[in-house]
Amino acid sequence: MSTLYEDWVDFAHLGPKPAGSKMNEAASQWLEDSLKQEGITSHQHRFDTTVWTLKNFEPLKMVESDQILESYPAVGSSSGNIKQGLIERSGTTNIWHMYQWPRYTVKNHVGKVIAHITARPDGPPLSQTLLETWNYPHLFVGEDTFREWEALINSGKTPTVSFQIETEITKKELINVHGIIKGTNSDLPPLVIGAHFDTMYNTIGAYDNASGTMVLLHLIKHLFDKPIERDIHYVFFNAEELLLAGSKAFVNDFYSEKDSLNIMINIEGMGRGSQVDIWSTNPNKIKNLELLKSNFDSLHQITPPLAGSDHQPFVDVGHPAMMLTVNDQEIIHSRRDVPQSEMVKNMKILYSYLEKITV
């Protein structure tokens, strides 16, 4: 059997795996084949959702200087050809109900709104998924551009930009990959363990979330022939980056009734840091925290959990849930998210912890 590291690198280097893409389909097949090689039967949970695709992007430029600004189209952006866009401050953009980032309106020469640009004020640019209706072209820029534009606006000047973007929005049938490892006591409510395997369009997603996907895959292979007390329902979620479409469909079809499971554990990105974050509905249901405390410099608990990942649909119908992550905001949703050695160390720690609390 290949190692956790080998599988992680191979899976990440399939390439970007945005929901609905050819590589997303290849990733789900990769997971099914990997389980099949170990004699583990998995199933396809099919669901329909709206898929956003980036067809073409001509970069954001300052018109006066022809300077290219690092930027990423928002998932949900519409198409547009902006030639002389005038930048104005216009409030904030809600990022996964966790952050409020400053937003700029882009207007034409007669004052009509033609696009929006959101700035990450405290780091390099990354892409995010829009929570509002998909009406306008929308880009994300980083801290450097934010500071440059603020200086211009504060001096009475108006930044003028250009960019071109072509997108497509379609309905597609997607696949979650799931299965059940049978326990010895069928009267006990099952444990659900999940991780999403899709990525944003602009990254191979070594951290977000090939790391969590591979921890789950190797945990399944380890537990498959072990005596466990309760059933474990595992699921590789698709379309997490499309407003949790895969986990919402999964909960609706399998776990819409409250009290039908023991707890849901969501394995999210294993980044390079030395702090593990645990988002949970009930800290008293978390087992063996000392195993994590002894391997990380710090442990940060958030209760109730924030809404930014696949545990949330379970929480919404009243299930207990927890998410494990080592946050790495410097590389998330960008081309900087590639395999790095510190991630492997944290993946192994989380794998060891999950192994002990599930057997």
UniProtKB/TrEMBL annotation:
GO MF annotation list: metalloexopeptidase activity
Domain of life: Bacteria
Species assigned in the record: Alkalicoccus halolimnae
Matching Gene3D superfamilies: 3.50.30.30, Zn peptidases
Biological process (GO), any one: proteolysis
Limits of the Peptidase M28 domain: 176-342
Protein name: M28 family peptidase
